[in-house]
């Protein structure tokens, strides 16, 4: 009886130890400043956690995802200012990336998120800032996007990249796969594409060479509210109506004077 009781106590202690396992990001290694002439930089997220998803962000834009056990387990996304994203290693204790093709647009906040999307649900995040100095802009070039669009307008944009590059288009961070390989983006404007306040669309063209991201460029446009247009039309119509009334009144006065004399 006593040995069985001891075994139960040991199992209970072991179980409580498993439940108490940490879920932490221990270190976020991001250089404060990348000086002119440095072509690439390594960033690293270290952790003590049993997670199901790790994500790297620059600002609000996700640019790398690591999901252990998935096929494929990693995926990268174009982000402004970073021309190349390479995974050095991602495993049980750390995820290290190498960023290249940098421009000064890569300056900003970098965030590492880890989460467990199965019970027990957990989440942890850590942020650091990196400043890029003296790095000139590079291809691709994004041209043709207007400053604003309204219902019925036609969105047109053009992306010029390297001759051997495959062009991919991203709208608000998600790829429009129907436009893959096309240097021209053409869609009818709808309110659905414009998000946030004020409603804005973020267009991004990215060039991939041999399946790897080589560069990207983004631009934004606003939504032209129809209520504002209707208000302007109403004011113009009111002005026109007032002018017609004044002309009619003047004409009646002239007729009255002629009849009097």
State the CATH class of the largest domain. Mainly Beta
CATH homologous superfamily classification of the largest domain: Immunoglobulins
What number of structural domains do the residues give?
Answer: 2
Provide a count of the helices: 2
Q: How large a portion of the residues is in β-strands, by DSSP E?
A: 35-45%
Indicate the CATH topology of the largest domain: Immunoglobulin-like
Rg measurement, Å: 30 Å
**Distance linking N and C termini:** 131 Å
Q: Which descriptor suits the 3D outline?
A: globular
Could you spell the SSE succession in H and E letters? HEEEEEEEEEEEEEEEEEEH
Sheet with most strands: 6 strands, mixed
CATH architectural label of the largest domain: Sandwich
Structural class: alpha+beta
DSSP helix fraction:
10-25%
What is the topology, as strand order, of the major beta sheet?
2-10-9-4-5-6
Total beta strand runs: 18
**Residue-averaged pLDDT:** 82
Q: What are the segments in which pLDDT stays under 50 over at least 5 consecutive residues?
A: 5-18, 227-235
Any overview of this molecule?
This protein is of the alpha+beta class and 261 residues long. It has a six-stranded mixed sheet, with no helix packed on it. The longest helix is centred in the last third of the chain and has 35 residues, at 226-260. A hairpin with a 2-residue loop joins β4 (53-58) and β5. It has two helices and 18 strands. It has two domains: 21-132, Immunoglobulins (Immunoglobulin-like, Sandwich), CATH 2.60.40.10; 141-223, Immunoglobulin-like. It has helices at 2-19, 226-260, and strands spanning 24-29, 33-34, 40-48, 53-58, 61-66, 74-76, 82-90, 94-102, 108-116, 122-132, 141-143, 148-149, 154-160, 166-171, 174-175, 184-188, 200-209, 212-223. This is Ig-like domain-containing protein. Residues 1-20 form the signal peptide. Keywords: Signal. It comes from Manduca sexta.
């Amino acid at each position: 009886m006593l040995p069985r009781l001891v075994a139960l106590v040991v199992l209970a202690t072991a179980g409580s130890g498993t439940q108490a396992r940490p879920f932490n990001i221990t270190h976020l290694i991001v250089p404060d400043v990348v000086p002119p002439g440095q072509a690439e930089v390594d960033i690293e997220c270290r952790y003590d956690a049993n997670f199901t998803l790790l994500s790297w962000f620059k600002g609000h834009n996700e640019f790398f995802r690591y999901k252990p056990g998935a096929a494929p387990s990693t995926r990268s996304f174009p982000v402004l200012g970073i021309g190349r994203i390479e995974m050095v290693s991602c495993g049980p204790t750390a995820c290290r990336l190498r960023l290249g093709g940098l421009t000064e647009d890569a300056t900003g906040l970098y965030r590492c998120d880890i989460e467990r999307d199965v019970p027990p649900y957990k989440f942890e995040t850590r942020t650091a800032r990196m400043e890029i100095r003296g790095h000139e802009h590079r291809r691709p070039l994004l041209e043709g996007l207007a400053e604003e669009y309204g219902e019925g307008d036609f969105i047109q944009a053009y992306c010029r990249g390297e001759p051997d590059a495959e062009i991919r288009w991203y709208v608000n961070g998600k790829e429009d796969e129907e436009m893959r390989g096309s240097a021209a983006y053409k869609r009818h404007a709808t309110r659905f594409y414009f998000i946030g306040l004020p409603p804005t669309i973020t267009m991004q063209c990215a060039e991939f060479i041999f399946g790897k991201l080589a560069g990207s460029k983004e631009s934004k446009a606003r939504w032209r509210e129809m209520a504002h247009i209707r208000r302007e039309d109403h004011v113009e119509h009111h002005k026109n109506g007032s002018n017609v009334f004044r002309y009619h009144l003047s004409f009646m006065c002239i007729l009255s004077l002629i009849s009097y004399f």
